[in-house]
Amino acid sequence: MPPSLEGQVTLEKTPGYFVTEKAPERIYKMSKKVKLILVLRNPVTRAISDYVQTMSKGYKNLKDFEDLLFEANGRLSSEWGVIRIGLYAKHIRNWLKVFPLEQILFVNGENLIKNPHEELIRVQTFLGLDVVIDESYFYHNETKGFPCLKKKDGFDTSKCLGKTKGRKHPEIRPDILRKMYEFYEPWNKKFYKMIGTDFHWEDQFGTEHER
Questions:
Q1: Which one-letter DSSP state was computed for residue 153?
Q2: What pLDDT was estimated at residue 150?
Q3: Is 54 helix (H, G, I), strand (E, B) or coil?
C-alpha cells in the first residue's frame, strides 16, 4: 500500500483477497483499523460471468459451461473455481475470525448496476467521507447495460466500464439454472445469517439478473 497523508483515504482493489485463506491475517497485521469493502453478486450470475471472462481470454479447448458444471456423478462441481468462489459463507468465515463485522461493508452488486448512487452513498458514508457522488453523476448505458459516469465536476469526458464488462452471457437451460440455485441456497442463507443482510438472491431465478 502507498503511504497516506493525514486526511487522505487510500484504496486498493484485489478481488482475489476474498478467497485467499491467509489474506485476512496479513491485512490485519498491516492495519488493524482498515475498512473492507466487498462487492457481491448473485453467485449464479457471478459463476456465469466468470466463465464468460475465461472464454474472452481465447481458450480454444474450453468446454461448454454445462459440461464443466457437473461431476461424473451428476453433482455440481463445487471444487471448480467458478463455483467455489460463490460459496461466500465459506470465505467470509476467515475474515470474521480476524475483523469485526462493522469494519466490512457489503455492497449489493445487482443494485450497484441498477442504482449505483445508492451503493456509492453507502460507501462514502462507510469511509467517513462527505457524500459528494450522488444520482446526478450517472447515466445508464443501454448497450452495455451498466451505469456510466457523466461529464461533470472536473471529468473532461464521460466514463464507462471497459470492454471486459457487459459481455453477453450464454443461454443456460432453466433446469441447469435451477440446480445452481438449489446448490447455492443453503450457502446463501448461511451467509445472510453471518453478515446480518439478506440479498434475496433466491428470488432472482428466471429474471434478467442471470444475464
A1: T
A2: 83
A3: helix
- List, for residues 70-87, the tens digit of each pLDDT value: 998 989 999 999 999 999
Cell numbers linked to 197:
443482510
Q: Which one-letter amino acid corresponds to residue 105?
A: L
Q: What is the pLDDT of residues 141-163, one digit of tens each?
A: 877 778 888 876 665 667 787 66
For 164-193, b where at least 16 C-beta lie within 10 A, e where not — what string?
eeeeeeeebeeeebebbbebbeebbeebbe
- Rounded to the nearest 10°, the torsion over CA 175, 177, 178, 179 is 90
- Note the pLDDT of residue 3: 77
Per-residue CA distances from 41 to 58, 138, 150 (Å):
25, 20, 24
pTM for this entry: 0.88
Among 137, 153, 126, smallest CA distance to 39 is for 126
Residue 76's alpha-carbon distances to 71, 164, 172, 179, 207, in angstroms, are 6, 27, 15, 8, 22
Cα 133 to Cα 146: distance, rounded to the nearest angstrom? 17
Residue % of the chain over a pLDDT of 70: 91
Q: Where are the alpha helices (DSSP H) in the chain?
A: 23-30, 43-56, 65-69, 81-84, 88-96, 109-114, 116-126, 174-195
- Does the pLDDT value for residue 63 go beyond 80? yes
